[in-house]
Amino acid sequence: MDDAVELSWGARCAGLAFFSLSIFLVALAAVLLLVRRWPNPWCGCHVCRAYLTGSWAKDFTNLADWYAHLLRESPTGTVHFHVLGCTVTANPANVEYMLKTRFDNFPKGRRFAALLGDLLGAGIFNFDSKFCAAADVLPDGTYVEGESRVMYHPYAMGRMPSIWGADYEAFRPDRWLTGPGGSFAPANLYKYPVFQAGLRVCLGKELAITEMKVVGVAVVKAFDVEVVGEHGRSGWAPTFVPGLTASISGGLPVRIIKRTLTPNSGFT
Ligand code: HEM
């Protein structure tokens, strides 16, 4: 028995129209989602192009190194990523403004606020960056739109000649031994905000520094630690894994050599 029902011409047209409308709405939703996620998805500036095409990876191992390069190049120490609707700064005056002067206008990211707000209170854990609540102008003259993303970049700030001088890449610990009798004088926290700065400095800062000193005394004094890289290669650049902390992809292979104690000079 043949149960097939022959649809009228009008019903077929209505079905086709409904199908086409559904496809159109899905496509429209996708475009709106894209626009919401990337506020300016068609920006053609060299920063946005390099970001979207991934061409930055030709010259830099880590995204953070490319950011640091852009921030060093910027006369104000601030860069806009238009496709992300994000302002990134390494300018200490901006950092002070965001973390102290106008703290309330730069709340933490929404995702973390939703997740951890009840537990941790307002204003902390901006690992998914800060937002600018109402349009504002940073001390370096940068205009930031309301509801846009703003972040300071501690990694880049540790690599800025404008903050540390032309030899910013040199391992020269004495740059911090400027206190009385060559004692340690901590850098201004807005220049070096690894523990954040301003109204909500990391509560574990002193404990973390003590832990580092313990490692310095127990390990560095007794062992030589040489980074050997993958398969023993030297001159190997570690690749950071994007995340809450700067862990290294595949770990950090090192060679450990125990130091020997000599009668006159202690450890060698
Ligand atoms: C090297 C180690 C550490 C680093 C680099 C670090 C860094 C930071 C940073 C950047 C923030 C601000 C987060 C934000 O709002 O975006 C923060 C907040 C905080 N950290 Fe740490 N931290 C370290 C270790 C610790 C330890 C060991 C503890 C606890 C024993 C701790 C407890 C806290 C707490 C409670 C806050 C929230 C402070 C507040 O908003 O009032 N941290 N930390």
UniProtKB/TrEMBL annotation:
InterPro entries, A to Z: Cyt_P450, Cyt_P450_sf
Protein name (record): Cytochrome P450
Transmembrane segments: 16-35
Protein family (similarity comment): Belongs to the cytochrome P450 family.
A Pfam entry, by short name: p450
MF GO annotations: heme binding; iron ion binding; monooxygenase activity; oxidoreductase activity, acting on paired donors, with incorporation or reduction of molecular oxygen
NADP listed as a keyword: no
UniProt superkingdom: Eukaryota
Annotated PANTHER family: CYTOCHROME P450
The entry's keywords: Iron, Membrane, Metal-binding, Oxidoreductase, Transmembrane, Transmembrane helix
Keyword Transmembrane helix set for record: yes
